[in-house]
Design brief:
- By secondary structure, this protein is mainly α.
- The chain has a single domain, classed as Alpha Horseshoe (Serine Threonine Protein Phosphatase 5, Tetratricopeptide repeat), CATH 1.25.40.
- 74% of the residues lie in helices and 0% in strands.
- α2 (18-31) runs antiparallel to α3 (35-47).
- TPR repeats lie at residues 35-68, 69-102.
Length: 140
Amino acid sequence: MVSSEFEEAYRELEEGKLESALEKFLKIAEKEQSVEVWVNIGNIYRRMNLLAKAIESYKRALEIDQKNPVVLFNLGSAYYQMGKFFEALKLLEKAEEQGLTDPRVKIVKALCKIKLNLPDPMEGLDEDQKRIVKDLMKNG
């Protein structure tokens, strides 16, 4: 699915040119529906703090691949940012069930558990991950 249009849009995203990258990814999405395009659109919206649009984009990606762990993680992270901790936790657990081993999953899961006052929120975290969670909780 890697086209020169996609590469150009992604490069602009990496350079922080969010509006331009978004415009390019939306044009690609008009021609071709793919998980990668919708995830990048969602990521741009999240970086712009347009969380409802980010969630909508991740849901479009899930329509294409319901079990994609990267989509589940990103959707869960967006819900976390919105303060929807229960929904976030369920999606993050599904991402792990689908094989995502990214350490950020455990960190965001722990943050959700803390916000939900669930027991043992740090269970399964290594010392570095525990430190990150504590730092994130201190800083809001």
